[in-house]
Amino acid sequence: MRKLHAPYLLSLLLSLIGFSLNRTFAQVSGTKPEFILYKHNSGPNGAEPVVQFDMLGEIKFNALAAVNTIRTGVSIRSFATGPVNGNNLPANLIFQTGAPALIDRMVITADGLVGIGTITPGFNLDVVGNTHTSGDFFGRLHMDENPGNPGPDTYLEEAYFENKSGLDLVAPNAARGGLLTLAPTINVPGATDHQLFFNTGGIYHRKEAANAANWAGPWEKLLTSEDINGTPNRVAKFTEPSKLGDSQLWDDGTNVGIATTTPAAKLDVNGSTRLGGNTSVAGNLAVSGNTAVGNSLVVSNNANIGAALAVNTTATVGTNLTVNNDATVGNDARVNGRLIVGNPPSTPGSHTVYVDGSIIATEVKVALQPSWPDYVFEANYPMPDLNEWEQFIQTNKHLPGVPSAATVAANGGIELGEMNRVLLEKVEELTLLLISQQKQLDTLKAELQDCQR
Question: Of 289, 319, 335, which one is at a domain's C-terminal end?
Answer without folding.
Answer: 335
